[in-house]
Amino acid sequence: MTTETAIFAGGCFWCTEAVFKSLAGVESVESGYIGGEVPNPTYKQVCTGDTGHAEAIRVTFDPAAISYGDLLDVNFATHDPTTLNRQGNDVGTQYRSAIFPLSDAQRAEAEAAISRANADHDGRVVTTIEGPAEWYPAENYHQDYWEGEGQRNPYCLAVIPPKLAKLRKGFAERLKS
Fold first, then answer.
1. Would you list the domain boundaries of the chain?
2. What is the pLDDT of residues 44-96, one digit of tens each?
3. Burial level of 26, CB count in 10 A (0-12/13-18/19+)?
4. Catalytic option among 12, 15, 47, 156
5. Neighbours of 141 (CB within 10 A)
6. Which fold does the domain 4-174 belong to in CATH?
7. pLDDT tens for residues 9-55?
8. Fewer CB within 10 Å, N- or C-terminus of the chain?
C-alpha cells in the first residue's frame, strides 16, 4: 500500500487528532508543531504564541481509501475556519486555521477546498495555506491524547464529542467500522 501525508492546523491538536483517527483510510495521526521559527519547540514554548508555530496534525493516509480532498473537507467541517487565530476558548496564532501542503497538487487541492469552504461560510474563511515548513512531533504525552488522558480532561470532554458528532453526521460513510 502506498501512503501519503497531509498536515492541518485547526486549533488544539488533541481535538483534531481525535477526528482524523476516526476516518477509514487514515493509517496514523501525529500531533506536532509547524510553521514557526524556533527549532525543536516545546509545548510550553508554542503555548506562549511567540514561536510562530501552529499546533497541527500530520495525517498518514491511504489515497486509495480516502482522498486528500476528502480530508480537507473533513478538516473544514470539524473546526471553525472563520475565526482568525482562535478555536473556541483557544486564542493565539498557535491555534490558527492553516493547511501545509506537501506538493503542488496538494496546494491546488487546498485552494479548491478553501473555495468550497468559502461558499459554505459566506466568504469568511481565514484559513491560510503555508509552507513549506519543518515538522516537529509534539511530546509523547500529546500523542493519542483523546484515547487516554483526554477522556478525563474536562476541556476535551467539552470540545471533542461535538466535533465527533459533526464527523458522524456529515461523513458517516468515511468512518472506520
1. 4-174
2. 999 999 999 999 999 999 999 999 999 999 999 999 999 999 998 899 999 99
3. buried
4. 12
5. 11
6. Peptide Methionine Sulfoxide Reductase; Chain A (3.30.1060)
7. 999 999 999 999 999 999 999 999 999 999 999 999 999 999 999 99
8. C
